Amino acid sequence: MEESDAKSVVSDAVEAYTLAMGDGETHTFHVNIYPHHAQSTCRYSVFQGEKLVASLAPNSQGFLYICQNPGEIREDLLDQLCEAVELRHPDIIDDDEEQPDRS
What we know:
single chain; alpha+beta; five-stranded antiparallel β-sheet; 5 strands; 22% helix; globular; disordered N terminus
């Protein structure tokens, strides 16, 4: 995805998430949800600013997992983002049995 493509995607972001870490750091992400994507693809694109930094997907248990992390975002931060998205969307379920289980 070129930078100009990322700008247009971020401007149409479905939801913004601001996460406060225990050390006082605050991180803001924009999450685009693609509910009709094929089950084997990442359904959630995560942007920080205008840059694609991660992708998330639901497993068969309905928990999100980190599908891609091109921005090399700390895993604990992405895990917190996954939990925040799950809280807003408790009906996230994927029937693809091949996805890893986070439980």
